[in-house]
Design a protein that fits this description.
Number of strands: 13
Strand content: 15-25%
Helix content: 40-55%
Structural class: alpha/beta
CATH architecture of the largest domain: 4-Layer Sandwich
Largest sheet: 7 strands, mixed
Number of helices: 15
Distance between the termini: 45 Å
Number of domains: 2
Length: 407
């Protein structure tokens, strides 16, 4: 049995589990997973397809992995690289063309919104450095400002024939607005990009731009109609077999459908965001699926993303429409509590009771009311540290860890 099949089987039967550290790092040397189709499993996956005109690459990896991807593809095939397709413009997927273009020029294809993404990345390089340093806990990270734009773009669908091999490119909005899935009918293989990642969908990331929940669910529904027998995801190992592929796509779609529909129903009742969040029931049975564990994004974040999509940034509380500065509010609360020390003590008491969300707010007020107070800083370190330890999602864990360390 191949290493990739072994990993998939172990994940499927529960003998292996994903977690916040492993989901993006299933590192397996490149394997041929179907006739003429090879799969590199790394921080972000790359698919290589052999055609009579040369290789087609679906994604090319990141600057950190480009050399390894090139080396492994070359160990599999010496054929020239002909075409690269971006499933989307995230830097872990679309930054590995360099070593292949050192050999000869590539034709690069992506959705028309990829170029707009790259322009936004150039504009907000400092912001992206800050938020990705916090999200991935990588000191010294510097966001790139140079990108390889697509030569060919499309809007809804693009059918290709490369050396007698047919590839269908379909645009769907989901994690991003520029997503492409690639269907290989000759081997019934589906390249999903990050529309499937062996985790609850990255559809609520609190530090990133708008995600598209209902469109993502509908994209998964559409993918099911293709009859794929092999799913090649953006992260994590392939899924082999039509029944497993269909189940994984159906369950992921069901999770997104139910969250979206519940939020919209409560918004239509005129409720505030706080009440919407309290009323949405996220099905735990789905989150127990090996491919839907909340180890990267937190499904609770998706509720807020649906609200942002339809309702804007205001949460419905009039006091937060034009609110006081955080520091001013913290100082007033501290004064009522007898000073920052009183808030820090209350924060520790709440944490001891297991009320970590409340504890974090109290500790945050203490720190903001008295930024130079050592006890307030210590209380923040304690309660945010406890909160981080109890989180399954990488995003929540990283943000709370940054708060605990003052980063």
């Amino acid at each position: 049995m191949s290493k990739l099949r072994q990993i998939t089987d172990e994940l499927w039967d529960g003998t292996r589990r994903t977690d916040h550290a492993s989901i993006l790092t299933t590192m397996v040397p490149l394997e041929e997973v179907a006739p003429g189709v090879a799969f590199h499993s790394g921080f972000a996956n790359v698919v290589a397809i052999r055609t009579d005109d040369g290789l087609v690459l679906v994604d090319t990896g990141s600057p950190m992995t480009a050399a390894v991807v090139h080396q492994q593809v070359r160990a599999w095939s010496s054929a020239p690289a002909h075409t690269a397709i971006y499933t989307h413009g995230h830097v872990d997927h679309a930054m590995g063309t360099g070593p292949f273009e050192a050999e000869r020029p590539l034709r690069v294809i992506g959705h028309e919104a990829v170029k707009e993404r790259f322009e936004r990345y150039r504009l907000t390089a400092g912001w992206n450095t800050a938020i990705n340093t916090r999200q991935f806990r990588v000191p010294g990270l510097k966001w790139p400002t140079t990108y390889r734009d697509p030569d060919v773009t499309y809007r809804d669908r693009l059918d290709l024939d490369v050396g007698g091999t047919r590839l269908e490119l379909h645009h769907h909005r989901g994690e991003t607005d520029d997503h492409t899935i690639v269907w290989l009918p000759h081997v019934k293989a589906l390249c999903t990009g990050d529309l499937f990642i062996w985790a609850a969908p990255n559809c609520g990331n609190p530090q990133k731009v708008q995600r598209y929940v209902i469109e993502w669910a509908r994209a998964l529904d559409a993918m099911r109609t293709l009859g794929a027998e092999l799913l090649l995801p953006g992260h994590g190992p392939p899924i082999f077999g039509a029944a497993r592929v269909d189940q994984a796509l159906a369950d992921t779609a069901a999770l997104l459908h139910t969250i979206h529909d519940q939020v919209v129903a409560r918004m239509n009742e005129g409720l505030r965001l706080d009440d919407v969040i309290a009323g949405v029931e996220i099905p735990t049975a789905l989150l127990e699926r090996p491919y839907l564990r909340p180890v990267y994004d937190d499904p609770a974040f998706i509720i807020r993303n649906v609200w942002r999509r339809y309702g804007g940034w205001w949460d419905g509380n009039p006091a937060r429409l034009l609110p006081p500065r955080d520091a001013a509010l913290a100082a007033e609360v501290a004064a009522m509590a007898g000073g920052a020390a009183g808030l820090a003590a209350r924060a520790r008491d709440a944490a001891a009771r297991g009320e970590l969300a409340l504890a974090c707010q109290l500790a945050e007020w203490a720190r903001q009311a008295a930024p130079d107070d050592a006890d307030a800083a210590a209380a923040c370190k304690e309660v945010y540290g406890r909160r981080a330890d109890g989180e399954t999602s990488l995003m929540a864990r990283s943000i709370f860890t940054a708060a605990a360390t003052g980063a």
